[in-house]
Write a structure and sequence with these properties.
heterodimer; A: alpha/beta; D-Maltodextrin-Binding Protein, domain 2; eleven-stranded mixed beta sheet; 9 helices; 33% helix; globular; B: mainly alpha; MetI-like fold; 2 strands; 79% helix
């Protein structure tokens, strides 16, 4: 009996140490193995935009898909899994993963602006007309349209939608609180914009929270937040009492692991990877992706 | 002052009643609309598709798989741990080891999730899984198995300790070895307490959400292998609750109803089991 215990204990220790070592070692890229397809949860703005652009709007996910519930976990999975493919907001991509060209076009700000990179989407805020009447909200809205905001947008890798040169005029003594929530894709940019605005107008306090585009619509519609953030084209049926403003445009980059030998993928192949109903043209392994 | 006491006593009951009413009032009409059988036994979950369908059967099955496997892992290791702490390790080690295991219970579930995501999932993916997918039932069960360890260890150790030591001494006096006395006399005598620990553990495993989401993969399909990305009932609710609206949100609340009924059945069957056992014991006592 004592021997069995000792055996079990050794076994457990071996398992644990191997586990600790995994972070160093790991599997290699093998194009004959199945692609680990990473997607986002239903309701995510990035997902609905991506699926719409590759022509799979309203379709269900393929079998075996890995659902990451936020942008960061997509990156983590693609960074660690040599066989993974995923998509994420361009502003989020770090150099720990590799971006694929889509139809030969690189995902850059210029290519998104001139429309040659196909997978891009708007980042909007939705709000009730009445909330703009509020002094602080009105000032923040003006700030978003100013050249100060455009500079921050471009500096952070997003594409500004308006080329104004008018800078923001500070309103002395302005106080108030602004609540913004919604899409996690717009969140990091909005936090930077809010920080800048708070430093210019130090009487104003801005709270920026995530939750996803669905939350953005809901909170704007119910007046929970002054502005809701959405990362898709404004759909009036989701918040009928609201209107929208396009803060910026964002590209969705197709990312793979650094071990991956591919540099480019066609939109058609991408569709066949993510399409449940692709039938015979479905791509299951990396060998099936045309070079 | 009397009122305060009364209110405090009623408060938790009020909370229970409110939650139950909320769940059923907002969930049951949806189930009725979709069709009871279609909701419970439908195999397609596609709340935002063009033709939405709301079948949660794959998630029920996935929940049962994950729970069963994690309980096997947790009970296997936990029971042996408590036996080791009971008689088979140096006395001065018992308290520190026990305290460390209790510390494990205090770790927030999101930390377990992180641990699973960064250590267990890559390990399973690279060394165990034949398909190259690390997310899935096995990873989730390993994480949950670790999470339920403290519950099982402390409850079984307490129930082992509450068995009169004369049983143990008697067995030794009759010539049993230490191992025989423990496994054939003490463990069977402490069975009901150990069972209670297991049921508590099942409850935790079934209800755990955060840690599971981070390692389960999340694809709402029927589990066919333990290395496949699946979705449990709790993961289904948490993944969509902040994002979905309208019918899709009602479908999540209806999922909550199913989960609620699950735990209710678990609790009721446990108390029936316990009652049954104590009755038997009494009868045995009378006939003697």
């Amino acid at each position: 009996m004592k021997k069995i215990f000792a055996l079990i204990l050794t076994f457990a220790i071996v398992i644990c140490s191997i586990g600790a070592l995994t972070s160093c070692g790991g599997a290699r890229f093998d194009e004959n193995k199945n692609i680990s397809v990473v997607t986002r949860e239903d309701g995510s703005g990035t997902k609905s935009a991506f699926m719409e652009i590759i022509g799979l709007k309203g379709k269900t996910d393929i079998s075996g898909v890995i659902v990451a519930s936020n942008t960061a976990s997509v990156l983590v999975e693609v960074k660690n899994n040599p066989l993974a493919i995923g998509y994420d907001s361009l502003g989020y991509i770090t150099d720990e993963v590799k971006m694929l060209k889509v139809d030969g076009v690189e995902a850059t700000i210029e290519n998104i602006k001139n429309g040659s990179y196909k997978i891009s989407r708007p980042l909007n805020i939705v709000y009730q007309e009445s909330s703009i009447n509020h002094e602080a909200n009105k000032a923040f809205f003006a700030f978003l349209q100013s050249s100060d905001a455009q500079a921050i947008i471009t500096d952070n890798g997003y594409v500004s939608t308006n080329d104004t040169t008018t800078s923001y005029t500070v309103i002395p003594g302005l106080t108030g609180e602004i609540d913004i929530s919604g899409s996690t894709s717009l969140l990091p940019l909005m936090e930077k914009l809010a920080m800048k605005f708070e430093s210019i107008q130090d009487g104003v306090k801005i709270t920026v929270a995530g939750g996803g585009s669905g939350t953005g619509y809901n909170n704007a519609k119910n007046g929970v937040s002054d502005f809701g953030m959405i990362s898709e084209d404004f759909n009036p049926s989701k918040a009928d009492n609201c209107t929208y403003y396009g803060v910026a445009k964002d590209g969705i980059a197709v990312i793979v692991n650094k071990e991956n030998t591919f540099d480019s993928i066609s939109l058609e192949d991408l569709k066949n990877i993510y399409n449940k109903d692709a039938g015979d043209s479905a791509i299951k392994t990396w060998a099936g992706v045309s070079k | 002052m009397h009122g305060v006491f009364l209110f405090s006593a009623i408060f938790s009951i009020l909370a229970l009643a409110t939650i139950t009413i909320f769940l059923f009032v907002s969930g049951v009409p949806f189930i009725a609309k979709t069709g009871f059988a279609e909701f419970l036994f439908g195999s397609d979950w596609a709340p935002v598709a063009d033709n939405p369908s709301y079948g949660i059967f794959p998630m029920i099955v996935a929940t049962l798989y994950v729970t069963a496997l994690s309980v096997i892992i947790g009970v296997g290791i936990g029971l042996l741990t408590s036996i080791a702490l009971y008689k088979f390790c140096p006395k001065r080690l018992v308290t520190p080891v026990r305290q460390m295991i209790n510390l494990l219970a205090g770790i927030p579930s999101v930390i377990f999730g992180l641990f699973g995501m960064t250590i267990i999932v890559p390990f399973v993916r690279d060394y165990i899984s034949p398909t190259g997918v690390g997310y899935g039932i096995l990873s989730a069960s390993l994480v949950l198995g670790i999470m339920i360890l403290p519950t099982i260890v402390s409850v079984s150790l307490d129930s082992l300790n509450s068995v009169p030591s004369s049983y143990y001494e008697g067995a030794l006096a009759l010539g049993a070895t230490k191992e025989q006395a423990t496994f054939k006399v003490m463990v069977p005598s402490a069975k009901s307490g150990i069972l209670a620990g297991v049921v508590l553990a099942i409850g935790r495993a079934i209800g755990e959400t955060m840690a599971v989401i981070m390692v389960i993969g999340g694809s709402p399909e029927m589990p066919e292998s333990i290395f496949q990305s699946v979705r449990t009932l709790t993961a289904n609710i948490a993944m969509g609750a902040l994002e979905l609206q309208g019918d899709a949100l009602s479908a999540l609340i209806a999922t909550g109803v199913v989960l609620f009924v699950f735990t209710l059945i678990l609790n009721v069957s446990f108390s029936l089991l316990k009652k049954d056992k104590s009755e038997k014991k009494e009868k045995r006592g009378e006939s003697k």
